[in-house]
Amino acid sequence: MSEPHHGATSASRTAASADSEVPQSAAAKLFDIRLLIGGLFTLYGLMLTIAGFFTSESAQQKASDININLWLGLGMLALGLLFLLWWRLRPLKIEPHPVEPHGADPHPVDRT
């Protein structure tokens, strides 16, 4: 039996993979953790900042008259935005590995 034909042929897939000079590894496909950290800090900071605006007087007196939700929320918001700015300005770059000529020893031995 012949296999069903799905999209591109193997020859065109080989040509497409030969065009890309950077090999794709599993590590290259990983998610950038700065986005996750920045997003969560921003979200939680926003929630705490909003909660800080609605803090009761009795809750604020328990915290020595410091609106802890507001201050920690603003701090977390600033930290999260810094992570997101870092992620945006310095994206991950995949460094290509030098390609060894076929038959070359990948681990040369110094014979001096």
Rg over C-alpha atoms, rounded to the nearest angstrom: 26 Å
Oligomer: single chain
Q: Could you say which overall geometry the principal axes of the C-alpha atoms support?
A: rod-shaped
Q: In DSSP terms, counting alpha (H) and pi (I) runs of 4 or more, how many helices?
A: 4
Percentage of β-strand residues: under 5%
In short:
This protein has helices at residues 10-19, 33-53, 57-62, 68-89.
SSE layout and pairing:
Blueprint: H1 10-19, H2 33-53, H3 57-62, H4 68-89
Helix pairs in contact: 2-4
Describe, in plain words, how this protein is organized in 3D.
By secondary structure, the chain is mainly α. Helices cover 53% and strands 0% of the residues. Helix 2 packs antiparallel against helix 4. It is rod-shaped and about 80 Å long. It starts with 9 loop residues before the first helix and ends in a 23-residue tail after the last helix.
What are its keywords?
112 residues
